């Protein structure tokens, strides 16, 4: 008698098991509702504290889904502030550069000046205005807070939840991951002609890995009897979702702790890859002992590799609505899938590693940059084709299997919030 199949989806009956509608992926009207009910009311990740480490450091972030552009700046007290990039006088964009350092912001149209908190501090020919009070004409503020070094903003001046309340139901036990000991090793930015959810979906399931990544990292995964990569476990919260995956500890990509841990972990990966992937083996060999920090598995917070799998590869964390963080033993990937329109997405990807102290360590980073670039290109090779196919109307729904539960959960959450306003 065939054993009864256990489905992860059974834990979340509210998600159902039926086909998922395609309209949210192709409808301009649906996207307008997403903008109003999700992006203009939700905490959105926009950067890291290291980007503005000193008072006066700032960066500018365009948020098309919120119909605005914001300035994120560290003030004189060391606090991080966010405000709309709109002068209070004649609506000129206040800051033209995408990043920089300043003691004040000056409008290039009429010279109005604002301090690092957005307060109006200078107006040429101020006595010619009619009973104007400076305190009434500062920059429009944006709610801003920090979680584990990641900067978040919310267009709602009085968010329904604090950032801590937003994050902790699913990610409280992730707090303490050594983000502060990592630095951005490399990054990419690309515009993809597809819906933002469609792009994110390609990264929040591993069913595709053995097929799409057959020539790059397929040797690094743990395959099921059916040949695909099944999750160790999943967590679906009210908004956020998580998935944990196992890997082949005998491969360089599947055993990422080998670079910092050395010892048996490195020997195992080197022995396996020396013949099949000699460049990967050379990069790993050069990197051993060069990382500034080591990250013993038992020092990671309990929310990372929460199943305690010996073959753990990484955890996929999707922070609603569009922020993806892949946590690994000694590095992490942080991706944004930011909508520009109903069928256009800005992909921003950053990969954080411990600082490397030797040339060999830098060589390893360059190898990983190329390896991960190829993985990303494989992931994105299907996206625009899928969008065009979905827009033909040939099919009205997509069918999902159990390992694609995060895709189902994401569609469920978005539709629930959009429908709540109808």
UniProtKB/TrEMBL annotation:
Similarity remark: Belongs to the bacterial ring-hydroxylating dioxygenase alpha subunit family.
Residue stretches spanning the membrane: none
Record-annotated Rieske domain positions: 43-153
Keywords noted in UniProt: 2Fe-2S, Iron, Iron-sulfur, Metal-binding, Oxidoreductase
Keyword hit for Lipid biosynthesis: no
Keyword Coiled coil carried by entry: no
Protein name: Rieske 2Fe-2S domain-containing protein
Pfam family of the protein (one): Rieske
Cofactor: Fe cation
């Amino acid at each position: 008698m065939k054993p009864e199949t256990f489905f992860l989806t059974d834990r979340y009956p509210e998600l159902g098991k039926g086909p998922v509608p395609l309209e949210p992926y192709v409808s301009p009207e649906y996207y307008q509702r997403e903008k109003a009910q999700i992006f203009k009311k939700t905490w959105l990740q926009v950067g890291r504290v290291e980007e503005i480490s000193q008072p006066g450091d700032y960066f500018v972030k365009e948020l098309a889904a919120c119909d605005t552009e914001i300035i994120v700046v560290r003030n004189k007290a060391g606090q991080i502030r966010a405000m709309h990039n709109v002068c209070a006088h004649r609506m000129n964009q206040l800051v033209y550069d995408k990043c920089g350092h300043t003691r004040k912001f000056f409008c290039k149209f009429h010279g109005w000046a604002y301090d690092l908190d957005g307060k109006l501090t200078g107006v040429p020919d101020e006595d010619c205005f009619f009973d104007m009070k400076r305190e009434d004409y500062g920059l429009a503020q944006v709610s801003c807070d920090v979680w584990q070094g990641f900067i978040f903003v919310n267009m709602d001046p009085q968010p329904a939840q604090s950032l801590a309340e937003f994050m902790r139901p699913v990610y409280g036990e992730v707090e303490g991951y050594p983000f502060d000991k990592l630095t951005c090793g490399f990054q990419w930015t690309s515009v993809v002609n597809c819906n933002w959810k469609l792009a994110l979906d390609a990264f929040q399931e591993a069913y595709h890995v053995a097929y799409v990544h057959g020539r790059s990292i397929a040797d690094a995964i743990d395959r099921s009897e059916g040949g695909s990569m099944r999750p160790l476990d999943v967590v679906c919260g009210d908004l956020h979702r998580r998935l944990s995956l196992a890997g082949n500890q005998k491969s360089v990509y599947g055993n990422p702790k080998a670079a910092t841990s050395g010892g048996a972990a490195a020997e195992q990966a080197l022995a396996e890859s020396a013949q099949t992937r000699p460049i990967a083996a050379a990069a790993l060999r050069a990197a051993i002992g060069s990382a500034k920090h080591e990250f013993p598995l038992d020092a990671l917070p309990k929310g990372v590799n929460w199943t305690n799998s010996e073959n753990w590869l990484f955890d996929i964390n999707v922070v609603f609505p569009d922020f993806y963080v892949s946590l690994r033993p000694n590095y992490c990937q942080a991706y944004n899938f930011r909508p520009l329109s109903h069928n256009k997405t800005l992909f921003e990807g950053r990969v954080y590693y411990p600082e490397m102290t030797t040339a060999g360590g830098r060589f390893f980073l360059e190898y990983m940059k190329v390896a991960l670039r190829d993985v990303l290109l494989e992931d994105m090779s299907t996206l625009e084709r899928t969008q065009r196919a979905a827009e033909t109307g040939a099919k009205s729904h997509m069918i999902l299997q159990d390992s694609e539960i995060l895709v189902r959960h994401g569609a469920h959450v978005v539709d629930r919030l959009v429908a709540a306003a109808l």
